[in-house]
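Why does residue order matter? Because the sequence determines the fold. Keep that principle in mind as you read this record.
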Amino acid sequence: MKIQIKNLGALQQAEFSLGDMTILCGGNNTGKTYATYALFGFLSVWRENFSIQIPEQKINQLLAEGVVHMDVAEYSDKASDILASGCAAYTKQLPVIFAAPADRFKESQFVVTVDAQDIPSSGGYGRRMGAANTELFSITKAEASSDLVITLLVDREQVRIPLDVITRVISDSLKDILFGHLFPNPFIASAERTGAAIFRKDLNFARNRLLEEMTKTDKNVDPMDLLFKVYQDYALPVKANVDFTRQLETLAKKSSFIAQQHPEVLADFADIIGGEYKVTTNDELYYIPKGKSVKLTMDESSSAVRSLLDIGFYLKHMAKPGDLLMVDEPELNLHPENQRRVARLLARLVNLGIKVFITTHSDYIVKELNTLIMLSHDKPPLRRLAEREGYKPEELITSERVRVYIAEKASIKVDGGRNKVNRHTLTPADIDPELGIEARSFDTTIETMNRIQEEIVWGGE
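Structure:
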């Protein structure tokens, strides 16, 4: 999947592709967060923006005959047009995604392209729709088949679902078959996650007070409009973090595939934070330090514990293979040693089938990923070194699985390659299988500091 961006925040023109691990690095105010938020927004709402029309006669045939067949191939031929129009519709939504004035996005473009041969999915598909504990109809597609079968499971007289709902369910099923395997389910930990963790109770209280006040307002005021207006003050990723922290008690009842199949990953995460998170039955959130009986609230806990809260709950309760875990500045509030450990954790998640997307200012994270890339070669000296330094085989990652982009001002081709101009963009970083990532974004600063310190020590008077 390739993403092209124009006139979005600081990014004037940029292009990047998703790898199993994708890294954006660069200076402040260079557009990394804009690219991250825009991608998260697209992956969160693409189904709403993509339009697939279902012929009315197909619905009538379903109700009259109890079954109708649709050829997925007819829609896969239109996939590029569906995708293009969906991206155009999403671009118009950017002011809502970023909770910012519309005039900031009047020249913005957000375009996603995919390989045509990847559409549609060759796998099977199955979905059932029901109401009041009664299954009403099913939608199925056999593996390697293009025949989509919609079957009514009850008599027509028993169908109580509006026809537009049936149409929408069939349309959504086609969207999933065509694009669902291409667009991963995103989970984001934004840079504002620490505040969401510490103020989760206040957010609940404020929301409840707002609902209470809405019941007392003038009858001419639509309370839902008022509620939505308040929520529109925050960018979608921030709202996602707030909603996530408000649902921790419910989420804590679930168990992810990592908790079920790879508990050692959670044990390593517990070592990073030095304890564990605990949600009580009355929705109280605590951090319990390892080996101690004390329970600390979030405002009593360290900033590192708060910054990793979302990731910890995601790993234990929500993670699914194929997800895209997006972390804005994973190094937030972490000691350099824990930054290294988080880098190894992220690489391990990639090897478990979770895609990872991060923005970072951390030379420690990039250098640790370099180490994992360099150690991934099956050579006896490297195997001995990895074992001596405590690296596990499941933490190593090959260079082919990593994409790195540097947010910077660079010369790019325009007008079909005839001219070059300096634009804020995302420049692909070289990744050598033997030497790792060339992260010049950090190297220049480090070299400057080293030069100054060497002159202090050796320059004399």
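DSSP finds 18 helices and 17 strands in the chain.
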